[in-house]
């Protein structure tokens, strides 16, 4: 197997808190193994600074320097052929990989890096500069969405290769389709900001449904649970909060529900869309950058500007037309099977790795 280094500065693959970021990091490790790559998780240092705190950033940079000094001899001993980092951006830059790759004279690869030149001044200035430097150092950058590609292509370093790696599930086949009930499912952490904004849109939409026979299950938990509970209390037993589910529990929830309802406020792309469509669910979401990259074509996704009225109309139609819902779910499942499983990711990664190791 080809020895290599893997790093996820935002959240390491073994982090105890589930998230789309962790899921994608784990999926990448699985795909690399299928490419005959033995990827060592080089560091568990989390660099994220969510508040723009100069002291936190300085402390992380000091810790990164210590890691670099340790990893250079480790990389030589392990014989790493390349370094690959997942999710480099201005709040969680890769402060380690470029220096180690340069010292070892090996290719440096980035997956889902974003550029934010407007952050080069302000509270994240040092971090933004580090993220830009990491992006400049990459031999290959794998972008996951069209939105990311635009900025990466505008500021690509000379000779840098940009490759589209579609977001993917860490599985080679599709899950079994369960007996679909006439119900909806929402999946997302109970967290301030974008997640809570999606839940507010969901609550506003439910209040406008004309169809009397509906039920929504919500899979998730987190620090704003009380606020989420308050949002859905007016709907009584029509809404069931399931809490944080195990992997199997979540698969069971996908299997029994017919519709995934998640607006997708500022989602990078959203692993839940991949998982739900793989299980044969129709999706009701807003047409947002990133989200649209993983949704099956052919369905109607209202614009964010159309608000909860458009979402309610879409849900009413699907709830009243189960055959259409089943058709859309089957089309979504086929789309995931073709474009968003390990086989597709392996083909993309393997071709790129072969080229850099020639």
Descriptive overview:
This protein is of the alpha/beta class. It folds into 2 domains: 2-171 and 341-356, Glycogen Phosphorylase B (Rossmann fold), CATH 3.40.50; 184-339, Rossmann fold, CATH 3.40.50.2000. It is 44% helix and 13% strand. It is built from 12 helices and 11 strands. The chain has helices spanning 20-34, 54-78, 97-104, 125-137, 146-154, 194-206, 225-232, 247-256, 271-278, 307-320, 322-339, 342-356, and strands at residues 2-7, 37-41, 83-86, 108-111, 140-143, 161-164, 184-187, 216-219, 239-243, 259-261, 282-284. Strand 8 (216-219), helix 7 and strand 9 (239-243) form a beta-alpha-beta unit. Helix 1 packs across helix 12 and helix 6 (194-206) runs parallel beside helix 7. The radius of gyration is 21 Å and the shape is globular. The mean pLDDT is 95.
